[in-house]
Write a structure and sequence with these properties.
By secondary structure, the protein is α/β, with parallel strands linked by helices. About 40% of the residues lie in helices and about 15% in strands. Among the domains are: about 30-80 and about 700-900, Up-down Bundle (Four Helix Bundle (Hemerythrin (Met), subunit A)); about 290-455, Rossmann fold (3-Layer(aba) Sandwich), CATH 3.40.50; about 465-630, Rossmann fold, CATH 3.40.50; about 910-975. It comes from Colletotrichum karsti.
Length: about 1000
């Protein structure tokens, strides 16, 4: 251990054993010497408000399983890796130069020793003696793994799992103009990115303050940092006590969204500032048709409510049902596709009902439950309701469920759609309300057997749609030109521009302002960006009324299609593209790709110009492209994403044959088979595709199957305490922060926590050091760590601990035996293993995909281990592996025997082929035995039914249900918890 400037302790790492018998000596790198030359300062800047907001956005805007979606690293402090990588490469080059001289010296010593030995033998002073080579020299032997391409019988290609046999491409025509332009990207955006990089490099090259050379030349550091908040000041503002939970107080709610929600402070539109909440309710279109709407709900079990954004369907429907008495027989649930929507809507409804959030009105998202025993109206993500159905198949606690924003066709929404078809047959007292924008409403009605549609009327005005005459190659540049043409030559009215993401939006805003400044006395224009990662207070600015004589130009992502409505929009500029999450089978993960939108999206965007008056829509693509290159509807998420979690959930719900499940749009066959293969490789499915006991346990954890398996197998390795900490740290946004003014100091502090054989163990070290220092915020700030991330990791750890106790899993600790932890990590990630190829490159053993260690990894600067497993991929200009652990190749062969085996001496290709043939023969025997067993069960069931027909009034057990026959009528009677037989 070593002492810090503040008297606290942080880990120092001793020489530890690596795979294959090698050791890591905790070497001193060039960064260590640089850090010594630049001592740490006491005024360490605390995370700014923007850092904290970015952290919250990263948490609340993520998907339900916490997975990383590649292509959206705008809020990642290490996303700009190029400088870090270049710096590391220089350090490695310096080390190689040193080691090259050492190698020459060592070679000379060996030659001298050989010459002396030879002289001694020739002279007769010494004699040669043969020694037995029966000792185990781990250093001299390099282990090689053989990779097997083995598949279970249920994935032999003969079994059909879905009605959608062909894959659904993300683009209608990959050779079309729009598809080609989307892959190329915008030229002006690339130029802006390169210019920023050049400016940053120039700034770093001219900044010598704080370096050894700068001190020698007398260059003083900039005093600008003195204005930054220091740790002590931050702590004093919080009340003087910097302990997180050191005094035993309950901080379980400190990170909840509800704990730090602020009251409205005058933001929003003029209407919202001038009217009370009760008056605002009465002006909503939904309030005007309340009686008719409630009558239709009372008369039907399923109803489709169609209404535009801003009609009040999300906030008012739950209140209408509550006031009509639906809350007396059960809860009123409302699902949302996004976490931030579930929380913000719950906040709004609680304010309108004048109750405390978490009492009558509450919300629930993954790892955060803000409800109580008094909760009647519950907003939640669709993933939360899906998990509740595991323990309560009939959702008995609910009297009515509203599935909001169903037109977005989120993955969990589609699964719930199919489940509700079965639940509604068993529970005639349950009401289901599906809300949608105008698009796709008929699909929902047809899916539920012609359920009635109730349309909430809204005012719409005609929109003049204009297509571009020729294909547009650079949509950002053309959008800027169109905005300026509208602003300079057309009547008053605000402009709404649709772009793909944050970078496109920021470049568009900068270009508009720059070209506007180049004009002579142009009209005033207020340029306002909006995207999901933007802080809520900045998002609210788009609703503010512009000053007289000033036109607003709002540049937005597809969040402005249906999720919000801005008054005063008269002109819409549609680039024709959006970012879509698409499954990449080669990488085995989801990526964000820029793709052409659908015709339905284009119509929805154009309609934004006709909300408050007649408008115009300028589409930056041709009419021919609209008809021939765009899909009619957006591809549902279920047809373009990884389905491992979905398949595991359906199997846990008792869906044995996925072909029988009622999907609104069935997923492609290859996506299903890939997901089932991944689950089989993890041991969640057996050789016949049935759920294993391990798979059933894995489904109880609300996270990725690999992480679930880590928690379960940790009990076997005796490291549950450590593994639950590692998994919790992997479930939160990045715990490290890098202020731009102090990046080198932040990097030096982070390296103090490094365990050079594992990034997973590095996270364990960070958490353990934080706990040993009393969970102090001050300690976090001095070590450039996010206190909020660590507190959130602690909350997740407590919830995972509760789940493990419910599963009757024993909590064990392995102490400092970290090899056990690495072996356990290998058991959950052996399907994501890579072998060192050379020149800093690794090769994925299964897919042969070339990857590199991310520059922020603890393994990056040291001697590269032969074999590693990794948590995730990061896709930028290269493919990087992140959160990496070095593993022994024998572990891979033992734990992932279905994929790997150690290449023994004399082992030939023929032996490998014999091994695979024996495996396939064994699988075929198992499949035949299972088929015979199933055929026998069907025969016995058929005999039982025939016997029952001959004996009226008899009871026959079928599929776990009791069927009571009354003469010629047979009625199923289903047992439900709390309802009797």
């Amino acid at each position: 251990m070593y002492d810090n400037r503040d008297g606290s302790t942080a880990p120092s790492f001793k020489r530890r054993r690596l795979d294959g018998g090698r050791f890591d000596s905790g070497r001193s790198t060039p960064r260590d010497s640089r850090s010594a030359a630049t001592p740490m300062r006491d005024d360490v800047p605390a995370p700014t408000d923007e850092d904290s907001k970015a952290l919250d956005r990263d948490w609340y805007m993520g998907d339900e399983f916490g997975g990383h979606v590649f292509g959206d690293d705008s809020h990642n402090p290490f996303a700009d890796y190029s400088a870090w990588e270049a710096q590391k490469q220089e350090e490695i080059k310096a080390e190689k130069m040193t080691s090259r001289f050492d190698a020459r010296r060592e070679q000379r010593n060996r030659e001298n020793d050989a010459w002396e030995t030879n002289r001694m033998l020739v002279s007769g002073v010494a004699q040669r003696r043969d020694m037995g080579a029966d000792f185990d020299d781990e250093e001299a032997t390099r282990v090689h793994l053989l990779v097997h391409d083995l598949r279970p019988p249920f994935l032999d290609g003969r079994t059909i799992f879905t009605k959608q046999l062909e894959p659904v491409p993300a683009v209608r025509d990959y050779q079309s103009d729009m598809a080609v332009f989307s892959r190329k990207g915008s030229k002006v955006v690339k130029e802006a990115r390169q210019q920023r990089e050049r400016q940053r490099q120039a700034q770093e090259a001219t900044s010598m303050a704080g370096t050894a050379l700068g001190n020698l030349m007398g260059v003083k550091e900039d005093d600008g940092d003195s204005a930054l908040p220091v740790a002590s000041e931050e702590i004093s503002k919080k009340g003087g006590d910097d302990k997180g939970d050191g005094k035993g107080e309950d901080n379980s709610n400190s990170n909840k969204f509800s704990a730090h929600m602020k009251k409205d402070d005058g933001g929003g539109s003029e209407f919202s500032r001038s009217k009370t909440l009760r008056e605002q309710r009465q002006y909503l279109p939904a309030f005007a048709v309340r009686e008719d709407l409630m009558r239709v709900i009372r008369e039907n079990q399923v109803i489709i409510v169609v209404g535009e954004t801003g009609s009040g369907k999300t906030t008012q429907l739950t209140q209408f049902l509550y006031e009509d008495g639906f809350g007396k027989s059960g809860m009123i649930g409302c699902t949302q596709p996004r976490r931030v929507a579930a929380m913000s809507v719950a906040k709004r409804v609680s304010e309108e009902m004048e109750v405390k959030l978490g009492s009558t009105v509450g919300y629930a998202i993954r790892f955060e439950d803000c409800t109580s025993k008094d909760t009647v109206i519950k907003y939640m993500t669709d993933g939360v309701l899906l998990r509740e159905s595991l323990n309560e198949p009939d959702l008995d606690r609910y009297s009515c469920v509203i599935m909001d924003e169903a037109h977005e066709r989120a993955l969990n929404t589609d699964i719930l759609m199919g489940l509700f078809k079965k639940i509604l047959q068993r529970r005639r007292d349950l009401k289901l309300i599906v809300t949608s924008a105008t698009m796709n409403a008929k699909r929902f009605s047809d899916f539920y057997g012609g359920a009635p549609e109730f349309i909430i009327p809204g005012r719409t005005f005609p929109v003049d749609v204009m297509f571009h005459r020729s294909p547009v190659e650079d949509y950002v540049d053309q959008a800027v030109q169109q905005v300026l043409a509208i602003h300079v030559s057309m009547d008053q009215g605000d402009i709404l521009v649709f772009m793909t993401g944050q970078e496109d939006i920021e470049v568009t805003c900068e270009l508009i302002q720059r070209r506007l400044d180049a004009l002579n006395d142009p009209p005033k224009l207020s340029i306002l960006p909006i995207y999901s990662q933007m802080p809520a207070d900045l998002q609210a600015k788009i609703f503010d009324r512009a000053a007289p004589g000033v036109r607003k130009c709002i540049v937005a992502t597809n969040i402005a299609e249906t999720s919000l409505t801005v008054d005063g929009i008269k002109y819409v500029v549609d680039a024709g593209y959006s970012k879509m999450k698409v499954y990449n089978p080669k990488m085995g993960m989801d990526t964000l790709q820029i793709t052409p939108i659908s015709q339905a999206n284009a119509s929805q965007r154009s309609g934004r110009a006709g909300r408050t008056g007649p408008g115009k829509a300028f589409r930056l693509f041709t009419e021919k492209a609209f008809k021939e290159e765009l899909y009619l509807q957006t591809i549902p998420e279920i047809q373009r994403t990884n389905l491992s979690n979905t398949v595991l959930m359906l199997k846990s719900l008792g869906v044995k044959d996925l072909l029988d499940f009622d999907f609104m749009d069935p997923p492609p066959q290859d996506t299903i088979t890939t997901s089932m293969f991944d689950l089989w490789a993890l041991g969640a499915l057996d050789n016949l595709g049935e759920l294993t006991p391990l798979g059933r346990k894995m489904s109880a954890f609300p996270m990725d199957p690999s992480l679930s398996k880590l928690l379960i197998t940790a009990e076997e390795y005796g490291c549950s305490e450590e593994m639950i900490t590692i998994v919790s740290m992997l479930s939160v946004p990045n715990v490290f922060y890098r202020p731009k003014e102090r990046q080198e100091e932040a990097d030096a502090q982070r390296e103090k926590f490094w365990v050079h054989e594992s990034d997973h163990l590095t996270y364990l070290q960070v958490y353990s050091a934080w706990k040993s220092n009393g969970c102090s915020d001050g300690w976090c700030i001095k070590h450039f760590l996010h206190p909020k991330s660590l507190r959130r990791a602690k909350e997740i750890r407590d919830q995972l601990l509760d789940i493990m106790k419910m599963q009757k899993m024993e909590m064990l600790s392995c102490g400092m035996d970290w090899d056990l932890i690495r072996k356990c990590i290998c058991s959950g990630y052996y399907h994501q293993a890579a072998k060192y190829k050379g020149s800093g490159e690794y090769i994925n053993l299964r897919t042969n995909l070339g990857v590199q260690l991310h520059p922020t990894s603890a393994l990056y600067a040291g001697h590269p281990p032969d074999y590693v497993v990794y948590h995730e991929l990061i896709l930028t200009s290269k493919v990087y592996v992140s959160t990496v652990t070095a593993v022994d190749p024998h572990w891979l062969a033992d734990l992932g025997g279905v994929f790997y085996s150690v290449k023994e001496k004399g082992y030939s290709v023929r032996d490998k082929r014999i091994t695979e043939t024996e495996f396939n023969r064994k699988m075929e025997i198992e499949a035949k035995m299972a088929e015979d067993k199933k055929r026998e069960e069907q025969r016995l069931e058929a005999e039982a039914e025939r016997s029952a027909k001959r004996k009226p009034g008899a009871a026959v057990a079928t599929n776990g249900k009791k069927i009571v026959t009354h003469g010629a009528v047979r009625k199923p009677v289903i047992k439900r918890r709390g309802r009797g037989v």
